[in-house]
Specification:
The complex is a heterodimer of chains A (141) and B (404). Chain A is of the alpha+beta class. Helices cover 50% and strands 14% of the residues of chain A. In chain A, a hairpin with a 4-residue loop joins β1 and β2. Chain B has 404 residues and is an alpha/beta fold. Chain B is built from 14 helices and 17 strands. In chain B, β11 and β12 form a beta hairpin. In chain B, α2 packs antiparallel against α10, α3 packs across α10 and α11 packs parallel to α14. Classes of the chains: A alpha+beta (141), B alpha/beta (404).
């Protein structure tokens, strides 16, 4: 299993190749377009995280002591960032998710999207991923 | 003589950069920018006059009081209110609306009707819903058509002897539609109902004459008309303001207090409990003076030119749809690109230094009407230029290319 930190470093490496914001955003937009992130049956109101502007859905499942996350958004840039977050946090042990930080977002030039005052639901999404991890960790204990 | 390049020099913020690009500020319907003359007024107040008003015998307090009351008179003159005590200084439009809604809770009873329009901002829906919950009155809604105009025949049918209040915005914040408030007021008065007009979006573009309109209440915010945030006004006919009970208790609003009974101060102080936003009130007066120096006719003519230029240019982009297509509208363009989420368009535009608003614009019922999650809204002010509109058009094309 690749650790959360290793995945974050991979992503930082990938983003370091981009020369400007346009290339970074184009990459995220493509990530957003590529992935069917969540099964439609989980796109329910109870799985919705309300940001002010774009909707974010998150679903979590436990497989072999690891949490698999799927998620989606109605805005494509948000979806691109979700794809990155899922890549980092999915298929990891709950404890590792709880302990992980999200500083890498800053290092790949996307800090503004995870600012607590940003109205896009992503901050709540990270919080929600960690809440799931805490809940599953409690079950394991 | 209207010269936009000279006017731009009055606004220091317009020369800053955002994300390495010259700022193009098209979020004027949310808040307008502040000219140096208004900024200077605030600095001057805190540098030379800062004191609490209305009670002090010392010179500073007297001078500050004079400045504050002078501002009230400027506002009175601007809106052509009959008396300066009909101008209540508040923290803004939302506060003004709540003040009236609260006052009416003691005047309404079960079976009474309140009419609002489908074009309202949440701040002109929620206080009335709360009022209805408290009093048992019914909230009725004037519907809108595809162009974003109110359907006046429907309004006629909603009116009855049970109608006690009608609340409509002068201009819609989400779509820019100018509502026929003269007719709305006249018809409401014919059944004996009072009318509150929310002028938050109108006051940056037009100069309302409250006596000519014969409106009962008119509300506005300073920060949408080149003034500071946190201050606004409520105009009310003296006869109505005298009828309404005070909104908040505190200093300033009393005539006499004993533990047995308090008698309230006369207008406008009855509704101005506590120490007000003194610097803000004075700066509000300065902002109104500034806008009048430029002249509302010149402002309206120039903004109309910007609106038509931008509408024409934007509509050349394939897949772009404009919401709010009334002939009678101000310099606001609400649009979407095909199936692209407005949030994505706004994010790309921000990267290009262009400030627009995205989302439901606190007018969810309108978005529900069009069955969309929101729009991108570009709103122009008299200090914007066609060159900036060109930058917006290029930005939208770029966003479309990246997001499609």
């Amino acid at each position: 299993m690749v650790s959360i930190e290793d995945i974050q470093n991979e992503i930082i490496d990938e983003f370091s190749m981009f020369e400007d914001w346009e290339e970074r955003y184009q990459y995220m937009i493509d990530l957003g377009k590529d992935l069917p992130l969540i099964d439609d049956q989980y796109k329910t109101d109870s799985n919705i995280i309300k940001g002010c502007q774009s909707k974010v859905w998150v679903h979590a499942e436990m497989n072999d002591d690891k949490i698999a996350f799927t998620a989606d958004s109605d805005a494509i840039i948000t979806k691109g960032i979700i794809a990155i977050l899922i890549r980092v946090f999915s298929n990891q042990h709950p404890k590792d998710i709880i302990d992980a930080n999200t500083d890498f977002i800053d290092q790949i030039g996307l800090k503004e999207h995870l600012s607590p005052t940003r109205a896009n639901g992503l901050v709540s999404m990270v919080k929600q991923l960690k809440m799931y991890a805490i809940a599953y960790q409690t079950q394991l204990n | 003589m209207f010269n936009v390049q000279d006017i731009r020099k009055d606004f220091p913020i317009l020369s800053r950069k955002v994300n390495g690009k010259p700022l193009v500020y098209f979020d004027n319907a949310a808040t307008s920018q502040t000219p140096q003359q208004v900024i200077d007024t605030i600095v001057d107040y805190y540098s030379n006059y800062n004191a609490n008003i209305h009670r002090g015998v010392h010179t500073l307090s007297q001078e500050a009081t004079d400045l504050y009351e002078q501002a009230r008179q400027n506002i009175q003159a601007h809106f052509n209110a009959k008396f300066s005590h009909e101008i209540i200084l508040t923290s803004g439009t939302t506060h003004s609306i709540n003040l009236v809604a609260n006052g009416f809770s003691s005047l309404l009873k079960k079976g009474d009707d309140i009419i609002v329009s489908a074009l309202e901002h949440h701040s002109n829906i929620v206080p009335w819903q709360m009022l209805c919950e408290r009093t048992g009155a019914h909230l009725k809604v004037i519907p809108m058509n595809e162009d974003g105009e109110l359907i006046m025949e429907a309004y006629d049918k909603l009116l009855s002897k049970n109608t006690k209040l009608v609340f409509v915005n002068h201009i819609s914040n989400a779509l820019g539609t100018i509502n026929p408030i003269e007719t709305i007021i006249e018809k409401a008065h014919a059944v004996g109902a009072a009318v509150l007009i929310d002028g938050a979006q109108a006051c940056p573009h037009v100069k309302p004459d409250v006596q000519k309109l014969d409106v009962d209440f008119y509300v506005a915010s300073a920060h949408k008309m080149c003034g500071p945030t946190g201050v606004g006004m409520l105009y009310g006919k003296a006869s109505w303001l005298n009828k309404l009970p005070p909104y908040q208790g505190g200093g300033e609003m009393i005539a006499e207090v004993t533990f047995e009974k308090t008698t309230y101060a006369s207008l406008p102080h009855k509704f101005e409990a506590g120490t007000p936003n003194i610097a803000g009130g004075i700066a509000f007066g300065a902002a109104i003076k500034y806008m009048n120096t430029i002249g509302f006719e010149a402002i309206a003519a120039y903004e109309n030119e910007l609106l038509h230029y931008a509408t024409e240019k934007l509509l050349q982009i394939e897949g772009l749809k404009i919401y709010g297509t009334s002939e009678s509208k101000t310099s606001v363009i609400s649009f979407n690109l095909n199936n692209i989420h407005p949030y994505d368009v706004g994010t790309i535009l921000d990267k290009l230094g262009i400030a627009v608003r995205t989302g439901h614009h606190c007018a969810q019922p309108i978005m529900d009407f069009y069955k969309i999650p929101g729009t991108v809204r570009a709103s122009f002010a008299f200090y914007n230029t066609k060159k900036e509109i060109d930058a917006l058009v290029e930005g939208v094309k770029k966003a479309k290319m990246m997001l499609s």
